[in-house]
Amino acid sequence: MIVRYDGQKVFPLEIETALLVCPNVKDCAVVGIVGPSHPQSSVPVAYVVLKERSLTNKNVVNQYCKKHLPTYLQPYKIIYIMELPHNIMGKTDYSQLNQD
Prior knowledge:
Elements: E1 2-3, E2 9-10, H1 12-21, E3 25-34, E4 42-50, H2 55-68, E5 77-80, H3 94-97
Parallel strand pairs: 4-5
Antiparallel strand pairs: 1-2, 3-4
């Protein structure tokens, strides 16, 4: 769970579920990072793997978030990557994503 500076609780799974419905998104993971203006809080950052890499697809994902997610659930930043890191069990390794 990510607790924003305004006390809103954000569950990464809510954002991930919404992003995976977007037709341009192949896979994604959401982690919390320290908020830039409120160091005692966190903001959601989405790591997104696109089905096809292009600037148009990135714009579609950005617009999709603005249209389908309430303001408090919108990712602070979307980072586009080639693939998500996985642990030896094949699950997304969130600890590697959180190092940025």
